């Protein structure tokens, strides 16, 4: 006949296997007699939530024995995570940081490349035509000079040509001026032309010019004039100005068209 060990407090007792079986049967009969199904569920529901830490047990201080955390303490409680938890050891952190930095550098470079303002290129296209009139009574030479400006926009946004200001001088004397406002708008990465006409008058300050321009024995009546042109452009929040100076030969004896 076999024997079983039975623990009672801190001592051990040897019980025969038959006696142990009989005791188990008596315990089951006692449980069935003392608690039916309904009473057992009620007792279990009233049994407090405890933490088993060995020989002694304590009631959970957070949930107060109910097994649930009060809703008014949700924002006050802190969950403890073991030090070796994988959530405290994120992977590929350096890789994500490097990729984020590279993406930021790439985005900033693209923005700087497309939005960085570049100066507008202004080239004097020369004189297109000259129409001449003579005032015999006052010995004046009246001319209308039409000139051309070639404008290039290297930016990725439109540029507004705000004004074109031209001044014509002959022998350091101003003989004509012209100012145009809101001339044209240049599209991104494109070119445009701006034509403007300046009325020129050479009179009493240089009477020999009238004699020279009306002298029939001379076939070509060329005189030299100085043209000073300034072009003001604006784009985004920036305003720039281009200045041009050029000496031009014009025929003051007859109408002329240049190709």
TrEMBL record:
Residues 1-35 are annotated as: Disordered. It is found in: Endomembrane system. Belongs to the TMEM106 family. Keywords: Membrane, Transmembrane, Transmembrane helix. InterPro entries: TMEM106 (IPR009790), TMEM106_C (IPR048509), TMEM106_N (IPR048511). Residues 117-257 form the Transmembrane protein 106 C-terminal domain. Residues 1-15 have a biased composition (Low complexity). GO terms for cellular component: endomembrane system. This is Transmembrane protein 106C. Residues 38-94 form the Transmembrane protein 106 N-terminal domain. The chain crosses the membrane at residues 95-116. It holds the Pfam family TMEM106. It comes from the Eukaryota. Its main location: membrane. It comes from Anabas testudineus (Climbing perch).
């Amino acid at each position: 006949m076999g024997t079983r060990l039975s623990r009672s407090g801190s001592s051990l007792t040897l019980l025969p296997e038959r006696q142990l079986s009989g005791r188990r049967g008596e315990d089951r009969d006692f449980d069935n007699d003392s608690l039916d199904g309904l009473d057992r569920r009620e007792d279990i529901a009233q049994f407090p939530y405890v933490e088993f830490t060995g020989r002694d047990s304590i009631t959970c201080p957070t949930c107060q024995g109910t097994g649930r955390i009060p809703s008014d303490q949700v924002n006050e409680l802190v969950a403890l995570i073991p030090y070796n938890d994988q959530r405290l050891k994120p992977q590929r952190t350096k890789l994500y940081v490097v990729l984020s930095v590279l993406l930021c550098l790439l985005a900033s470079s693209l923005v700087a490349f497309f939005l960085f303002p570049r100066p507008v290129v202004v080239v004097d296209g020369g004189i297109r035509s000259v129409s001449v009139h003579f005032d015999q009574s006052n010995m004046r030479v009246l001319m209308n000079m039409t000139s051309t400006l070639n404008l290039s926009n290297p930016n990725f946004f439109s540029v507004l040509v705000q004004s074109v200001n031209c001044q014509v001088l002959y022998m350091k004397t101003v003989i004509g001026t012209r100012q145009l406002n809101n001339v044209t708008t240049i599209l991104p990465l494109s070119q445009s032309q701006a034509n403007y006409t300046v009325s020129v008058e050479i009179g009493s300050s240089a009477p020999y010019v009238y004699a020279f321009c009306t002298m029939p024995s001379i076939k070509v009546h060329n005189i030299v004039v100085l043209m000073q042109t300034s072009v003001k452009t604006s784009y985004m929040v920036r305003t720039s100005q281009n200045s041009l100076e050029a000496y031009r030969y014009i025929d003051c004896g007859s109408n002329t068209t240049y190709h």
